[in-house]
């Protein structure tokens, strides 16, 4: 008997794909889920990924054995170097415990479980944050609290309030930060602001936990997008990082990610790693191989890494062009200010549309974005930008 189960609501982000698929309007536009599209609106496989696929296919040493609980050690090494830098002191000192994870989402959940196990009761996240952060951490048994981050009134970071909130967080608490291209707002602290955040968190003995889901995708420059993480490491934080390779490498469905924690010394790193493995084994035993091997093939080869950075920059640049075109089209003949669309970076435009306006966009124009007004710029193309801007003007007039 299964009658005790009630119908659950559709997922606020992924559920949009289901409604979109059922919509028979030929002009329909999906700007909900954050997945990069070509200017023809089609899924995009990076040429360097195609190349890595060919290389891997030709290796007759490739097999389908299990990976270890912590994943592919070569992938983990390359992933950590990608985030912290090849010359990173903490990596050389063997102070970092790292595992391959089921992309960013899986890494976040492993971190939540690990924190709970280590006696942590709460985690702080920015307000707003990526919607899934909250249930991931709650389901791991943590209380989720928020620090102020973004002021919707003027579509800008509320930095002073953020700092004030950080100063009031009890010491040894874990605070989640978006490494770059904050989702959903597209607004990051400046370099000077990051320096201040680092200092406030050091003075308050807080533990930074970077969610790095857009490295290379934000600015088109992978080391630059890791600026905040690397600066915090320089400042001596024993921080943690979760990495996703979904967006930057376009490997969404392959579930490629990594979780790493900087510890005091090699022996502490080994203990933390053992706890990560004990957390993972009863959840899913070990991560999948294919995507991680693609990333290793690329990051393990100088030319393919250069190609990757160029191709990532191309995606970032197409999105920036779309930001300009969307803003220009929206401001044509209107008096509303849409400057924030070009000020924001990364995959999303945090449009400022109300939930009523979002529903009208969906019902009257078959344009699907999340209720908070977040528009995936990756789904905007030269073909649909005017349709989208006309519809937005219509629902906001
Ligand atoms: N963190 C943030 C901030 C994200 O935007 C996303 C993807 N939307 C993720 C984590 C996780 O994505 P994935 O599980 O595909 O890596």
Automatic annotation (TrEMBL):
EC nos: 2.6.1.1
CDD domains registered for this protein in UniProt: AAT_like
One GO-annotated biological process of the protein: amino acid metabolic process
Known cofactor(s): pyridoxal 5'-phosphate
Coiled coil regions, renumbered to chain: none
Every Aminotransferase class I/classII large domain range: 27-392
Record has Transferase as a keyword: yes
Pfam family, one: Aminotran_1_2
Catalytic reactions of this protein: L-aspartate + 2-oxoglutarate = oxaloacetate + L-glutamate
GO molecular function, one term: L-aspartate:2-oxoglutarate aminotransferase activity
Keywords: Aminotransferase, Pyridoxal phosphate, Transferase
Transferase in keyword set: yes
One cellular component term from this protein's GO annotations in UniProt: mitochondrion
Entry-linked InterPro entries: Aminotransferase_I/II_large, Asp_trans, NHTrfase_class1_PyrdxlP-BS, PyrdxlP-dep_Trfase, PyrdxlP-dep_Trfase_major, PyrdxlP-dep_Trfase_small
Misc. remarks from the entry: In eukaryotes there are cytoplasmic, mitochondrial and chloroplastic isozymes.
NCBIfam families assigned to the protein according to its UniProt record, in alphabetical order: PRK09257.1
Family to which this protein belongs: Belongs to the class-I pyridoxal-phosphate-dependent aminotransferase family.
Quaternary data: Homodimer.
PANTHER family cross-referenced by the UniProt entry: ASPARTATE AMINOTRANSFERASE, ASPARTATE AMINOTRANSFERASE, MITOCHONDRIAL
Name this polypeptide is given: Aspartate aminotransferase
